[in-house]
Amino acid sequence: MTIFERIIARELPAQIVHETPEVLAFRDLHPQAPTHVLVAPKKPIARLAAAGPADAGLLGTLLLAAAEVARKLGLEENGYRLVINNGADGGETVPHLHLHVLGGRRMEWPPG
Ligand code: DGP
C-alpha cells in the first residue's frame, strides 16, 4: 500500500483541501511553491502510463478537480501550474497517480 493510499484511507494524516467520491486533494508535505497541492484518484493507479481507456473519465475528473482546487485556493487570477511526474526520469517518487497543483509564485519554463 502506498503512502497516498494510506492518506486516502485516513490511516495517515494530511491537510485535505478537497474531496469528492473519486478524488482526494491534500497539501504536499514538501511544498515547492506557496501553494502546492496533490490531487489523487482514490483508485490506486500507479502512474499515468498505467491508466487505460477505462480510466478516461477518471482522468478528466482529476483535471477538473485540479482546476476546482486552484479556484478554491485563489490561484485562478494569477495562474498556476499542473504537473504529473511519470516514472524515474519524470521525477516520480510515489507510485500512485497524482497531479501537482503549484501556485503562488511565478514558474520558470522550461522546468529544471
Ligand atoms: P512525485 O515526485 O510526483 O511522485 O510526488 C510525490 C510528492 O508527494 C512529493 O512532492 C512529496 C509528497 N509526499 C511524500 N510523502 C508525503 C506524505 O506523507 N504526505 C504528503 N502530504 N505528501 C507527501
Description:
The protein has a single domain, classed as HIT-like (HIT family, subunit A), CATH 3.30.428. The chain is built from three helices and five strands. Strands 1-2-3-5-4 form a five-stranded antiparallel sheet, covered by helices on one side. The N and C termini lie far apart (31 Å). It is of the alpha+beta class. The structure holds 2'-deoxyguanosine-5'-monophosphate. The site of 2'-deoxyguanosine-5'-monophosphate has 13 residues, from β2. 2'-deoxyguanosine-5'-monophosphate binds at residues 3, 14, 26-30, 38, 85, 91-94.
Gist of the model:
The chain is α+β, with helices and mostly antiparallel strands.
Q: Rg to the nearest angstrom?
A: 13 Å
What would the average pLDDT be, to the nearest integer?
98
Low-confidence stretches: none
Helical stretch tally: 3
CATH superfamily: HIT-like
Q: Which cofactor or ligand species appear?
A: 2'-deoxyguanosine-5'-monophosphate
End-to-end span in angstroms? 31 Å
Shape verdict: globular
